[in-house]
């Protein structure tokens, strides 16, 4: 064992070289995992570094911890919308798809390597899953931006299919060593690992969110560490009980990342950093474990198996898994891309160390073949992802990197969000002054970043294409802000259907009818120059109704109600709700009481006198939030 000072020095140099070499990924398109693996191989005993490392147990331990942290980071960064959008195809590909891939590859491995059927299937199980670290790196940092459904499917599948590969590896090793029989034993192991993994992962996710919001830590820096400990608790407890710790920590991350928690931004950023560090350490250590001369000895067989895995097993698994469900709603070009993105990474190499622990005679052969397959997959598939996505017409324009960011740091969860929008040329906001944007109440532009300049927004400041706007807003106003700033379309094509129905959004009474139409595509049967205060007041007065809290009127399909009155009885805040066709028809068929109370009022003017329900707000006590730029 070298002195600790030397270990620290060598470790620091390897990490620095890994970070510097990652610049090559963006410049030349080389997958980062290949660079990290290659750096480890160069530093190994047969490379220029000459570092002797052949401890499979230590490599397995490093890979396990690193992968757990990578999956936790992946879960934290996975929005609930992506889960709802793609959980069905992802679940099928992560289970049935992995099994089919393992069987096809395993049968080929048994013949090509000249090993027994069980040993061949073991190799198929080891390389059957797509690697979460590889896919996350390729999609999130490799310059590939796909449709929401396709991208979410690939990320969810890669995060959820490692437990299936681990189950196949452990189960087949148990059968090979005589510790388990085919049939009920394997099925029981599968149910135990997946059932416990899902139950503990989801349960601890909700408990973790509750604990983070209830604990009163002295420093914001402790919250990310606290979240890490909770994630590792999920992993360790599940694994100790016999379940899949990888599935548990991934699900805990998903739940935690989609709950309102204190120090949420800091927690996510911290684990994104930890995830990168884990990738570097894991791939470099696994690179150290390899011997290039031994890889060369299995190159011909490894190349054949890699070709079968990439060109036959993965595409066949995708088609057979999704075919009974009409291919999950994916068209042919997306299915081709799904078939190609079967990236292999650290998980197969880590699993390939398992046969050494049970003394399997074929362990060295399996390890070297798996390592070679991973290299071929990372280079062949990872390198071609951007070109294939563009060739198939699946690549979407990348969002420009924000020049500045803003966050709210709080010891308690607060009812507020910081949202960032980069203004496209066809945005409805382009060319408008800030005062003409019809922003909802409790939504303000904190700053505008234009090139290298930071512009404090004023009423006369005009929004330009390419501007980066940072909002501080109440969460209930977000759909309305998204409708203007996150939408890709010209104002003339917008419609009220883009804004959720039957949700009351707060607007300022000073907003004009024309601004409402220009920004949101909403048409009111009133003159453009009228403010909402004036439009509501005129409609109510036409029916002899005095403006009061809860009073409301319906303009075509839009209901406007009075939320707040000023000291001079002006309407300061308006609640706007888009009505569904059924409710609108009911309103038109049954005039409200206030219309009936004034028989001289015009029949086509609909007035609602029923107060709208007010949303209760609970003030959270504690130190005020700090805003940092």
UniProtKB/TrEMBL annotation:
GO molecular function: antiporter activity; monoatomic cation transmembrane transporter activity
Comp. bias (Polar residues): 587-597
Region of interest (Disordered), ranges: 584-629
N-terminal signal peptide: none
GO cellular component: plasma membrane
Transmembrane segments: 32-51, 91-114, 186-212, 224-252, 273-291, 303-323, 335-359, 365-388
Lipid bilayer topology: Multi-pass membrane protein
UniProt GO BP: potassium ion transport; proton transmembrane transport
Main location (coarse class): membrane
UniProt entry keywords in alphabetical sequence: Antiport, Cell membrane, Ion transport, Membrane, Potassium, Potassium transport, Transmembrane, Transmembrane helix, Transport
Highest taxon in the source lineage: Bacteria
Subcellular localization: Cell membrane
Every RCK C-terminal domain range: 406-487
Keyword Membrane applies: yes
PANTHER family, A to Z: K(+)_H(+) ANTIPORTER NHAP2 (PTHR32507:SF7), NA(+)/H(+) ANTIPORTER 1 (PTHR32507)
Name of the protein: Potassium/proton antiporter, CPA1 family
